Predict the structure of Heme chaperone HemW.
Amino acid sequence: MSAVTIPLDRSPGFGVYIHWPFCAAKCPYCDFNSHVRHQPVDQERFARAFETELKTMRDRTGPREVTSIFLGGGTPSLMKPETVGAVLDAVARNWTVPAGIEVTLEANPSSVEAERFRGYRAAGVNRVSLGVQALNDKDLRFLGRLHNVEEALHAIGLAREIFPRLSFDLIYARPGQTPEAWGAELEQAIGYAVDHLSLYQLTIEEGTPFHALYAAKKFTLPDNDHAADLYALTQEVTSAHGLPAYEISNHARPGAESRHNLTYWRYGEYVGVGPGAHGRFVENGRRTVTIAERMPETWANLVEAKGHGVTGGEVLTRAEEADEFLLMGLRLAEGIDLQRYEALSGRGLSSARLSVLQEEGLVAPVGNARLRATTAGMIVLDAVVADLAR
């Protein structure tokens, strides 16, 4: 991975994630917990349920200082600004929320209105993440998006005008996409970006419409070598324009990295609230996983009955914590703190396996204290992590 300026503050942080599960339409590639409702959603009911579950989570975590808040989905830009404001107020009632921390809301260009955006800003949102996904109408239709390029550019313009920070997503390695076409689209995107881009390779997830269509050979994707070339091109173009990768799929100007996502990758703690939300935080000295009921109405019923919608979870063993730390941290350009890995696992990484992976050009030391995956290692990261974790 090319050189990148690493933020001096590497503290993992404590994040709050709010999941709004509703969408206007389900994208064919999406396996997130999102649901389409053809009748208006009772937003007041869900706001009350979020408030209740946040209070229950506060009882479990104790007092904390929040470092970031993220409203994801689903399509949070279908929420009324009043709903967003009520949820953010509830977070502040339960934990310490310093002024100016990162508060991100995901938005789809098709659900963007200037008045609504200004309402979100007034409620406390200071960063928006737009699901643009492509900058040509043909591929937007293939991806099942409800917006066209003109609407996407309008949303980007509004977001730049109203919010201090902006990110937007693109999906690459689409059917028939050449390096030349992707390079041109990426150059165009960087021209509109302020400080952050999320660039994801199209993958086929089980249970999605694309999975069935792909299995039926209704479309093909670039092979592994072609996809690797597109990934390498992505690193080259973004770095040349001052938005290097700080994580496998995320690119930012130095200092503009997503604070919330860094909390995940640095293996920090976070509370997850809402249908299908996951959380990971230390409780009674052990890292605890919470998993909420996925069906929105069932989740709301549970919250109203017992104060939360958590239906699953576990307390992680030290070995499981160490494996997760390795898997998350090696996604980052800054890599992992070897001393922290030893503290979690009770052992160091195998010097023999490290030597082999270094010789193969898949990992590299960062001084004496850290280890990172190289660009080649990022492409096969699952295999690298599995080898190190043995």
Remarks:
- Residues 43-61 form the longest helix (19 residues).
- Residues 14-265 form a domain with the TIM Barrel fold (CATH 3.20.20.70).
- Residues 1-8 have pLDDT under 50 and may be disordered.
- The CA atoms of residues 12 and 266 lie 5 Å apart.
